[in-house]
Structure formats: structure tokens, C-alpha cells
Amino acid sequence: MRRTIIAGNWKMYKTIGEAIELANGLKRELFELDTQHIEAVLCPPYTALSEVAEVISNSNIQLGAQDVYWQDEGAFTGEVSPKMLKDCGCNFVIIGHSERRQYFSETNETVNKKVKAALKHGLFPIVCVGETLEEREVGRTFAVLDDHVINGLKDLDKDEFSRVIIAYEPVWAIGTGKTATPQQAQEAHMYIRGVLAKMYGAELAQACRIQYGGSVKPENTKELMSEPDVDGALVGGASLNVTSFATILKTAAQVKK
Ligand code: PEP
Question: For the whole model, what pTM was predicted?
Fold first, then answer.
């Protein structure tokens, strides 16, 4: 049985004060969330990690970051290491988000280095994969998923892979209001699980959690979470508001219990 995981990617939103307010609101709304079946993760910007960590300490909400560098320390101006994220209280880190691939030259090779570094320091990587609209339209969706999954997870051993979470995020659905249909999501998730099975065997592939991301909202959570291979969501816009993110979590908890 895979434990559902819903993560909120706050992107470059929220000052420290706003982040504290949002985290406090979610803590209040979610205090009864049954974490036996579902995990809730907040991924604020770096600047608010410590403060949000403090707000959610002793709660059923966990902390993640939006990116990481692969070195432990050194002269890498502007970068943040896995050790620093652990120090802030993070357990999770998003790696290879399409916005990082699109605007900051992230490649499968850098994703792979970051995944290995995160695992080495005890962080659970949430590895984002997914096709653009153009790639979908020319029938390259599965080829892109092969490329992102195989090369992003290259040379991980079985123990390392067992701590990886995948987020299937079709780029055309991120921040656009266009959600993949539940059938499109299920098809892609099943395909990814098949790729993972070839890499790590059926048992580990079955145990791997695959989130869907792309315009997840309270209104479409139930139908997306009802698909058998959808194990949660990576939520952008709708995670910036207490009511909408709490509703997504509560809805997912109902569907997956
Ligand atoms: C995301 O940033 O990962 C995302 C899925 O954004 P949105 O929910 O806003 O589409």
C-alpha cells in the first residue's frame, strides 16, 4: 500500500511573514489529518524554510525545499546544499521541476547529481518528469518520460531508489488551468511505473509513489486521486491558499483511505 503524498510548491511566492501566516493556517486546518495514509509537505522558498519549520514542528505537516545543489559546501555562490536543507528541517526536496529545466538550464544530468546528493543526506527527492505540449502533440510523451526517468535516476541502487518520489507534471498543465484528464494522468503514471519496473523490478516499482502535478485544485482532486496509479499531488497555485490546499488534502485523504 503506497502512502499518499501531497506537496505544496510555493514557488517564488510568500515573504517570511506571509509564509508563517499560511503555515499557521494550514496547521490549524489540518490538525486532524490522518497521517497514517497521507503525508502533507510544504515547500516554501528558501528564505522562509526555517520559520515555516518552526511553525509546523510538532504538527502532522512536513517540510521540503524547491531545489538543491549537489555539493556539500564550497564556493558556489547562490546555491544551497542538502546539508543546509536538513539543517533547516527539510525532509523532502523537489528536483528537476519543469520551471528549473525551462529557465535555469536544469538537465537530466544535473537532476541525477542532485537526486544522489539529496539521498546521501537523507532527503526524499521528489523528481519531476513530464512532457511539453509540443512533445505530446507529436507523440513523444512516452519518449520524454523514458528520458527523464531513466537518466534522472541513472545509477541509483535499489535502496536509493526506494526513497525516490516521482512527480508526473505535464508541462502544458502547470500553471495554465488545464489539467490532464484522470485517464491521461493514469496512462502516464502506469507508463512510468512500467519503466521503473524494468529498472528496479516489479516490487520496488509498485512501492514507488508517483504524484500528479498540473493545475490540481479542490474541484479536480477527487477524480485525479481516484486513479489507481496516482499516489498524490504536487500542487502549485492552489497550495498558496489555506482553504484550497487544506481541501485538496482532506479530499485526497477521503479518496485514499
Ligand atoms: C507545480 O508548480 O508543480 C504545479 C503543478 O503548479 P500548478 O499546480 O499551479 O499547475
Answer: 0.97
